[in-house]
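Methods — Computational structure assignment.
A single polypeptide chain was analysed. Its primary sequence is given first, followed by the predicted tertiary structure written as structure tokens.
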Amino acid sequence: MRIGLYPGTFDPVTLGHLDIIERALALVDRLVIGVAINRDKGPLFPLEDRVAMLTEECARISARRGGEILVHPFENLLIDCARELGARVIIRGLRAVADFEYEFQMVGMNRALDSSIETVFLMADARRQAIASRLVKEIARLGGDVSHFVTPEVRAALDRRFR
């Protein structure tokens, strides 16, 4: 079974993330969405909310497209999480050249830790390249319309958070 791991903080999950999830399903038999418990980033949504949002969105994708998607919180090294899950592929989304520079360093470090786990990059859909969770949160915090960047359910969660 080909298992892929798509890690991130998903704070919140955006249409860009969901695009990568749908496309990654074509590459693996089981896709695990690794929700990072990154205390240094100070997420807007607690882990439980991020996991719940992703679980709901992934259930819709699975119902529509098929494929097995699991949502899995993790706090250890990404490479250790991949090993624990039996993932042979780490999926990463790229939006711009700046993303590539950071990801290039991460791939080098991960390969030094375990050269048997590959990293695959998926370019964001052109309509989704500008979407970043950080910007979505800023727009929502200032009362702007984020409906072009997130699902209605995530938009409602943002509205509740900033109300």
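Note: Helices lie at 15-24, 47-65, 78-85, 97-113, 133-141, 152-162.
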